């Protein structure tokens, strides 16, 4: 049997007989179901169904009879839920609550948003050990209402699961999946965490949304089943005792909301069942599909398959007739004198995240029905980058580049049945504003939703656990009559991945890394003072401008002082130079491709060419592909070096904008020593 909770608040339980879904029970619609878990007494079959709806938890028997309605004391909707015997663990955005037999036991306020929760198996660990997966790349291990310790992870964890479904031999092993597609296992002991293995996201696949353990290959060892937000289903097998190996994968067209292994369709054949965002349930079976080759390419279908196809055809015809009838009914009612136009509601699943690998933002839009088109508009300069998986046709509209107007206007026209669209943009630090997406699905009457995404002043910075303190650092110091909440709101305005809620305590420190250059930033602030340290003087300059502007808006008088380290400029140039050299070389190669191809056509062969030119011809397609993916990379590096030059002298009170053309000439020469000498001499 399979039980599913959906966005209409309906809990559906069904089985499969002869390839057809046979319903067991179905509840009435209501508020959206955020989580569904199975529970029951410890060491017995987990056959009770628990669902989280708003701030309430309901329980159903396997026959569909409701036996529990528990209204929690949470002020927000439940985001994560875990059940272990009589213990219920619930999380809203920042709040964790533990109940035993529906009685409040423990409470914890997290420093950042909680994405998932679980508890180590009580029968093995002998104590209640809850683990929270938090957005700030940390697992928080609790004991009662107190934080026991934190575990630093390589990415923001989105989902947690017990290894092997039971925490492994010790009961302490947890598998986590991150929003940037990494997978890992860590052992949660009583005093510290021991990392066991970690798999990076080499294939640049989507973030991980769900994990299950099930022996789908029938080798006596449970495999790891993983569902990603780009529709990939993966099966990892533990061939050696150490790291798992990817054995099989399967691509669906929508994000995988949930994944489970079990026996559903036919006795003796296990399946992987996946639920996708728009409400499809897909089963991947281990049952062999027999195909007997007939004459030519003809395939003989079994009697069972033929009857299934004919019943599906009938169902489709009936649905088409029903749609036509409803459409006619709507047309008639919309043309009568008392007509009231109704705007159809549709929900959009969106995600706007910074990718560390290529310093770009991914905007993923997913709609429950097919998307017709998406208009993207921005009031700050942005580069649109190519996405391999994107089959939509993009067209650009010209912009007037006036202040506070459009810098980007692009329309994506989607092919039929596209429910998921992925875009990539790269921003320029120091230029901040809003990116807007106007989403129009293929529904009648035509309707559109607008979603807004903030491009922050230091948009290419990403939170990190620690920084290199030995680098030459520039410091910006702020003092004034501002509260802790006010300076925190300014930091939230400037930097991504900072929790909107003001942190507990009197003082807080955050560390960041620039994903494009690798420079770093340390922010420490409290009521009345703030300290910002970076090895990139441009980062300090952007912060100085934005923070003073925000303080002026609130009529707060700021005392700003700074300490500039001359060595930091040379250090930043040394970080930029390898990237600059590589991009200049790439641009030169691209420039030569057409001429070399013409030579190849005229001469017939290219043996007379120097090896370096022959290799350009051989790699031409890869070079063009790379250049297409990063169209304005070189211009961005030139811009960063120019900003660095201007900012260095701005802190000395000198305006050097007249020397910029000379700087650009030196950049074209690609001489690192000459560039450093120019910075020193100017």
TrEMBL record:
Highest taxon listed in the record's lineage: Eukaryota
InterPro entries assigned: Bardet-Biedl_syndrome_7_prot, BBS7_GAE_dom, BBS7_hairpin, BBS7_pf_dom, Beta-prop_BBS7, WD40_repeat_dom_sf
Coiled-coil parts of chain: 302-329
Domain BBS7 GAE: 344-453
Segments forming domain BBS7 beta-propeller: 1-286
GO terms of biological process kind: intracellular protein localization; non-motile cilium assembly
GO cellular component: axoneme; BBSome; ciliary basal body; membrane; neuron projection
Alphabetical keyword list: Coiled coil
Domain BBS7 helical hairpin residue range list: 566-679
Ranges where the BBS7 platform domain occurs: 461-563
SUPFAM superfamilies xref list: WD40 repeat-like
Protein name per UniProt: BBS7 protein
Gene: Bbs7
